[in-house]
Amino acid sequence: MKEKSAEFILVDKSVLPPVISKVLDAKMILAQNPDRSVQSVVEEQGISRSAFYKYRDNVHPFYETSYGRVITVFFVVEDVSGILSTIINIMARANLNIVTINQNMPINGLADISISVETNKMDSPIGEVISSLREIKGVRKCEIIARD
Questions:
Q1: Could you tell me if 103 and 75 are in contact, meaning their C-beta atoms sit under 8 angstroms apart?
Q2: Which residues face 77 on adjacent strands?
Q3: N or C: which end of the chain has fewer CB within 10 A?
Q4: How open is the CA angle 103-109-110, to the nearest 5 degrees?
Q5: What whole-number percentage of the chain has pLDDT above 90?
Q6: Is 67 helix (H, G, I), strand (E, B) or coil?
């Protein structure tokens, strides 16, 4: 019998059943508090132990699978002085190591930028970094487009 290989997809958490988010939260709590019991954490999250054990090995926050990799972030930004510097500073504060930066000439006041970063020393979850980057005034689009 041929063993089925794992197939992965990237899905926005908001479209998944709530139990998946609760399992992710429980895993995070247990990782940060090794003295806590699984029973106390799942009760706190409002899920059963069986649901936790059913999903725990198959659901992972995106940042966990991004750690120690090279990711490429794509931006569409307004042609504003200092915007690239602001982006780079946020990445530096998260301890992301920039590998490459590609910036196109602005057309109609907008420029495309792609930045590849190494994540092996990052201090913050990549989701938090992306959220911070999206909040920069003049950033119209910010998304991860590749992961090595």
A1: no
A2: 111, 139
A3: N
A4: 40
A5: 57
A6: coil
Residue 43 is predicted with a pLDDT of 96
Expressed in angstroms, the distance from the first to the final Cα of the chain is: 31
- Compute the C-alpha angle 77/79/132, nearest 5°: 35
Query: 89 is written with which tokens?
Result: 């500073």
DSSP state letters, 16-60: S-HHHHHHHHHHHHHHH-TTS-HHHHHHHHT--HHHHHHHTTT--
Q: Residues 110, 78: contact at Cβ < 8 Å? A: yes
Place of tokens 């994540």: 119
Which band of pLDDT confidence, cut at 50, 70 and 90, is reported for residue 2?
Answer: low
Give the relative orientation of helices 38-45 and 18-32 as an angle to the nearest 10 degrees: 140
Q: Name the residue ranges covered by the structural domains of the chain.
A: 15-59, 68-147
Sign of CA dihedral 65, 73, 81, 77: negative
**3 state DSSP class of 115:** strand
Please name the residue that has the structure tokens 């806590």: 36
Q: Which fold has domain 68-147?
A: Alpha-Beta Plaits (3.30.70)
